[in-house]
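INTERNAL AUDIT FORM
Audit reference: QA-55
Scope: verify that the stored structure record matches its stored sequence.
Auditor: D.O.
Record contents follow.
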Amino acid sequence: AARPAGPGPRRAASEPETIGAQHLPEQHDEHMALAAKLAETCHRMYTLTPTGLAPEFVKIVGGSMVAGANHNLLRLETIEAFFYLWRFTEDARYREWGWEIFSAFERHCRVPSGGYSGLKNVKLRGSAKDDTMQTFWLAESLKYFLLLFSDDSLLDLNTHVINTEAHPIKILPS
């Protein structure tokens, strides 16, 4: 499958639509820089394994990442972060990283009968699957992939918020 392309130039980092920017504008750039560094760390968790999928968690030991648990449960949090950073910056790397991860899920977690399954060991190509498709894979992970690769007009973040279960909720007028 072809990688989704970015729509063009980046938004200015100071645009007020960035979540929370209107409350602490003097810290906006610092917060966005920290968010970018955290996203890079999340991306590294995926790129350090032969499958391209992150372990459940990592430990930082002597400045290096070490898998704390080798399994992957099809979690969404990294893709969620890439979605928000994409929307706030339009930096194409977040879509590229998302596509790398989506492709790794396709290669290693898709099952022939339909659906997806977590992996028991992300450090082994051809690892056994855990025979479980977590409910959040369909409800949240795939939704964030859809939002990451869709046109921004699909969901206006100025008129909607996304709750902890990835459901968009319209903001009521005050």
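Auditor finding: record pair retrieved intact. Confidence is low (pLDDT under 50) at residues 6-18.
Action required: none
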